[in-house]
Predict the 3D structure of the following.
Amino acid sequence: MNEMSSRGIAAGAAFLVIAVAAAQAPKSDPAQFLNQPLVSEVFTADPSAHVFNGKLYIYPSHDIDAGVPADDLGSHFAMRDYRVFSLDKVGGKPVDHGVALDIKDVPWAGRQMWAPDAAERNGRYYLYFPVKDKKDVFRIGVAIGSTPAGPFKAEPQPIDGSFSIDPAVFKDSDGRFYMYFGGIWGGQLQRWAGGSYTPKDAYPANDRPALSAKVARLSDNMTSFAESPRDVVVQDEAGKPLTAGDNRRRFFEASWLHKVKDTYYFSYSTGDTHFIAYATSKSPYGPFTYRGTILEPVLGWTNHHSIVEFQGKWYLFYHDAQISGQTHLRNIKVTELKHRDDGSIETIDAYFEPKR
Ligand code: FUB
């Protein structure tokens, strides 16, 4: 256990250890949480939120208990479809628009539909999703719809040149779209170090630069990359890339990009230390300078978020395991996010740990 172990099941241990701990966890007390679940009829996670046509649309993972044993690769996150939710206002009850894409309708998909995102261009809507192909390699697919809630029809093949997990699509003020993606451990980013897939994990030494998320501009058709993916380097204040051993700050998964005035904020999960961290740059390609923590660890191993401006305020969408107490059965939440005048973000602590 590392220094995070005082936060109960959010401790920095492997998925398996956490799953066992969660199974034994006492039922959560709602008073331990800053916010209550937005959806309780189904399990939802990894909420990517966007404003389309004046409404908030949320594109989460749809967690299920598929009966797959837990392991370090996250095999127990065995999701099979996506549902879309919408909100007229924060504080209201989300509308469940039902299944927007099912794995059986993605010809190349094998298993595990992980964290999706969506974008709109010229009145068409694009759902981006990571799923393992039939050879068990994560790729990123795209499905197209005529409304923000879907249904979406999957393209016959994954996006050419895509790999790993957690796509996040950002529309810049000049109308260009960029996809940020990647995730280590079960997300397989470490298997692409040489530019092509190898089934062997290759991590840098602890004192070497950490593996980076990737970014690629999208073509106007929104279904292909306009360029080869580049590294999203996160560096310290002295301009030195964060190292692989710096697991309280380095990138793990769950990329997100938002922009305030001319500053690009790249935020991400630190995975095994469970923070949502952020870094800033004057370019969508970075390098990004590490600035701090947006969200402290939540209940459950994973931490995954999105950030969106809606009706004059900024919001952080995130998840935890309040309802189930199990790390692979999560529920989405929302809370206000505040930027200070100096460009920093106020850290949110959304989980008050039980007194032991
Ligand atoms: O939901 C499955 C995976 O768990 C996501 O892709 C990761 O970001 C983590 O939240």
Notes: Residues 45-46, 61, 77, 114-115, 165-166, 183, 253-254, 302, 304 surround beta-L-arabinofuranose (CB under 6 Å). The chain has one domain: 3-337.
